[in-house]
Amino acid sequence: MDASAAPPLTQPRKADPGISFDNTYARLPARFYARLPPTPVAEPTLIALNEGLCRSLGIDPEAVDETTWAAILAGNRLPAGAEPLAQAYAGHQFGVFVPSLGDGRAILLGEVVGTDGVRRDLQLKGSGRTPFSRMGDGRAPLGPVLREFLVSEAMAALGIPTTRSLAAVASGEAVYRDRVLPGGVLTRVASSHLRVGTFQYFAARNDIEAVRLLADYAIARHDPDLADMPAPERYRAFLERVALRQADLVAAWLMVGFVHGVMNTDNCAISGETIDFGPCAFLDAYEPGAVFSSIDHGGRYAYANQPRIAAWNLARLADCLLPLLAEPQEEAIAIAEDALAAFGERFRTAYRAGIVRKIGIARPREGDAELAADLLARMAENGADFTLTFRRLAEAVGDPAADGAIRPLFADPAAFDSWAERWRARLVEEGPAEEVAARMKRTNPAVIPRNHLVEGAIAAAVERGDLGPFACLHAALIDPYADRTPDDRYTLPPAPHERVTVTFCGT
Ligand code: AMP
Ligand code: MG
After folding, report:
1. Which atom of ligand 1 is nearest to the CA of 505?
2. How far is the CA of 136 from the centre of ligand 1 (A)?
3. Residue nearest (by alpha carbon) to ligand 1 atom 17
4. How many angstroms does the Cα of residue 169 sit away from the middle of ligand 2?
5. Long-range Cβ contact pairs of 496-499 (< 8 A, separation 24 or more)
6. What confidence score (pLDDT) does residue 3 get?
7. pLDDT tens track for 440-490
8. Could you tell me the end-to-end alpha-carbon distance of the chain, in angstroms, rounded to an integer?
9. How many Å lie between the centroid of ligand 2 and the Cα of residue 103?
10. Residue 153, Cβ neighbours under 10 Å: how many?
């Protein structure tokens, strides 16, 4: 064989990864954004590159070497085809309207169409100041970057709509918060970054033409089947779709004990994806009133308040769309209210189906939702761990002896016993125990991103430069339904000294 015809053993690495950008947001009118490149950082190093996600976006993770990836994902080098910009948006923050927020520390590089045919944004977060930065430095500490990486990837693995994390990079620069911290940049992937607050930005300026353009743009991206529907029906249908997605999303959050923490309208995505993992957290002990954000004193964004807040956010979207729905306004309001009514109905249906599925019921009937609610009430009263209780229930379906692992989760184990008796009587009608147990294990995760685990992995990475715990936790989080040994630390609640009760907004 002619050796000269053989391909070289290693392909020469290129300077550009050849990302097939296909940008549409940059085609919208100039008042939708500010064009500017990211601000380079001192010394970028690649902490994590999500190779599977790269491939699903049609990006070859091997196309360039690690140093080049670090430069690109830190914003030091623009990949060919990127059209960097900061998006404009407004938002209600803790109920107070701020007419101009926008990407104060993020840059949209552009859009790619993945192997699934879905268009997604590639955005750098922590990439420097923009015209929307206000008093901020445009940067992100590495800790919150790693946090978003872990939690967003965990959400995706749990099967919950979410933005994803393509990469985390350390900037080699200091970021000044209440103390000096190392900086980082996250590459966020989202099916779009359109928010309720994006609509509010234009509505607040009485720029109805922009609201219409934005609505049609959002429909093209998220509800293309509505695109040919005549106006104003199209906008009513769009509002209803957004409401349905939010209803499904919040129900899914509640099923895994997720508390978003900052459900401001600027953090409420039109796509129905979870976005912005700031002071979010997962419940350990079940506590409906749980709040984690250090600045949420009124409990506005408490665990059990999330459906109400989602509905409130949707009403703010409806406010923006009124001029597109009908004239006079009273008529538009009636149409909007009708569309938003879909939220409550869908949420209740999704929640009921989800919560009875968690206790092993696939064919719900009268009384099942009450049975599940009764368990939750007992868990709340007895400080039972949310994730462990449900996961261990799966093991106890066919084996009452396995109750021994559940009872100690309750301050008063007898509170579990009397419920378990009724539960078993009901489950007899749900089919063979092994089948029910297998089903329950597919709906009740063993591993969630518990705060103490996430904080521990971040501390190791940021304070000691040890990425081992981050990598191990990541591996556990992306396989959340797998069986693990009973003493596996990724499945266990925090010991008293490990407890993290507050997460800070100083991201
Ligand atoms: P968030 O709390 O992350 O949802 O951000 C709310 C708003 O504050 C958005 O407009 C962000 O772009 C902006 N923001 C947050 N942190 C910074 C920062 N360090 N520098 C500039 N803007 C920021
Ligand atoms: Mg935000």
Report:
1. 2
2. 7
3. 136
4. 20
5. 498/452, 498/456, 499/284, 499/452
6. 47
7. 999 999 999 999 999 999 999 999 999 999 999 999 999 999 999 999 999
8. 59
9. 8
10. 21
In 3D, which of 326, 290, 275 has the Cα closest to residue 156? 275
Residues with Cβ within 8 Å of residue 188, at least 6 apart in sequence: 106, 121, 122, 123, 124, 125, 148, 152, 163, 164, 165, 166
Closest CA to ligand 1's atom 11: 104
Angle between helices 468-477 and 451-464 (to 10 degrees): 150
In the predicted structure, residue 491 carries a pLDDT above the cut 60: yes
Tell the burial category of 216 from Cβ atoms under 10 Å away from its Cβ (0-12, 13-18, 19+).
middle
Active site residues: 266
pLDDT of residue 343 exceeding 60: yes
pLDDT category of residue 505 using cuts at 50, 70 and 90: very low
For residue 126, what are its two tokens? 């922590």
Closest CA to 242 of 336, 359, 330, 331: 336
**Which protein residues have their CB within 5 A of the ion that is ligand 2?**
267, 276
Q: Are 132 and 104 in contact (CB under 8 A)?
A: yes
Closest ligand to the CA of 183: 1
Residue 500: its pLDDT value, please?
A: 79
- Domain spans in the chain, listed from the N-terminal domain onward: 25-192, 197-286+296-357, 360-443
Question: In which element (H, E) is residue 255 found?
Answer: helix 233-256
Q: Judge whether residue 10 has pLDDT over 80.
A: no
CA-nearest of 241, 433, 228 to 343 is: 241
- pTM, whole model, 2 decimals? 0.96
Task: Dump the DSSP string for 392-450.
Answer: HHHHHSS-GGGGGGTGGGSSSHHHHHHHHHHHHHHHGGGS-HHHHHHHHHHHS-S----
Q: Scanning the structure block, which residue is given the tokens 């309208």?
A: 265
Percent of the chain with pLDDT over 90: 92
For the stretch 321-330, pLDDT in tens is 999 999 999 9
Within 13 A of 11's CA, how many CA atoms are on the CB side? 8
Which ligand does the CA of 104 lie closest to? 1
Max Cα–Cα distance, the chain, nearest Å: 81
Whether 282 contacts 451, CB under 8 Å: yes
- Preceding peptide of 480 cis, ω within 30°: no
42-98 pLDDT, tens digit per residue, is 999 999 999 999 999 999 999 999 999 999 999 999 999 999 999 999 999 999 999
| Ligand lying nearest the CA atom of residue 148 | 1
State which ligand 1 atom lies nearest to the alpha carbon of 507.
16
Ligand 1 pocket by C-beta < 6 Å: which residues?
101-105, 132-133, 136-139, 262, 266-267, 276, 278, 507
Is the pLDDT at 5 greater than 90, yes or no? Answer: no
